[in-house]
Specification:
By secondary structure, the chain is an alpha/beta fold. The protein contains eleven helices and eleven strands. The protein has an eleven-stranded mixed β-sheet, sandwiched between helices. The longest helix is centred in the N-terminal third of the chain and has 38 residues, at 3-40.
Length: 426
Amino acid sequence: MSYVEEISRLLTDHLAGWTLVTLSTLLAVGVLIWIFKAFVLQISPRLGLWIILWIIRGLAYLTWKMRGLGLGFDLEFGKTASQLDLDLQYLTTVTAPAMADYKPELGYTPIHVLYATDRAAADDLQDFYTSARGDLSFGLATVSIPRRHRPGHLERPSLLRFQIREDPQKHISIIDVAEMTSDQWLSVLRHSLPNDETRSILLFVHGYNVAFSEAVRRTAQLAYDLAFAGIPVLYSWPSSGTIKGYTADEATIDWTACNLEKVLQLIASSGLDEINAVAHSMGNRALTTAISRFAERNEPIHFNQMVLAAPDIDAKLFLDYLAPRLVELSRRCSLYASSGDQALALSQTVHAFPRAGEGEPNLVLAGGIDTIDASPVDMDLLGHGYFAENKQVIDDLFMLIRHGLSPDDRNLHRRNKGGVAYWLFP
């Protein structure tokens, strides 16, 4: 399908969607005014409110049924003219990452994610893996990146857009999950890239309160947004997937470090040119512990770019023990921190000691490690997922991982504290 046809279809979808929304709104407003006069003012306010709510539910259900019967439209509820222009510009300017291309016949870009996990397998195939501990297993997941994906977004079904079911053309969805043996996994790792390419991987280790399916989608989104030219690899440990499961996850993260170490040994034996790693939150504990054991044994493994995003690690332990080993085994190690990270602020309260991912006044500075203070960037309420959700941070990671640029060569402001340099987002 040509760009002209795509843009024509997009315009038709938006105009049709707006027509339906406008007519539905006018009808709803007229009915609500009549109901307000007839019931709220004269008979029963409670009955009037009840009827109003049922009318709203009826309109939502009618729109959903029209979509299901093929009579509806690709509703992007609440789109503004500027957002429509952005969609059109995005269609004609974005380029797919080197590892995958947009498939017009599918309506999305398929991203293949190799994974290793020590979660127990789920009985229900829809859930894939549970939060319980299990044996180390390997596999390959295929994830859809929709045509109109926006960097930093994990597009999911939204009731505000009258979306009930997951649609791979609109949402980042898991298309398929296939288990394989460790030998098969290693073979895919070795032979997925042609010999004339830089044979590299992007390893992602997620934090706590993350389910397997969410971790797979996040890995694909990161690889796509960073236009990564190698193989995305996920290590998923059995996080409980609940906020109240924090203490249980702390016990599990210590347990899983041994399994992550085995996966790293497998990766190191693959003969890849580059190993890039991104760990988030509590996942940094498993990654840094496993790497430290390599350093203690003088076992050969070397990382190209190592990114520690919002590390939930004791700051003193990081400075005294972990940092020197990370510097030794990586070409560049970058630590992203923020004073707006409420999750780490709570972790500090729980542990009574500062965390390595906190911003000022507890910003961690270590020789050989590039500390990036992300406090100025826009964040959500919790302020903990900025590494993959904020466009500024994603752009910075792109320049770091894709092009290997130093902080001074990226769009950052150099600062100095106690004779040690760090960098601040503008």
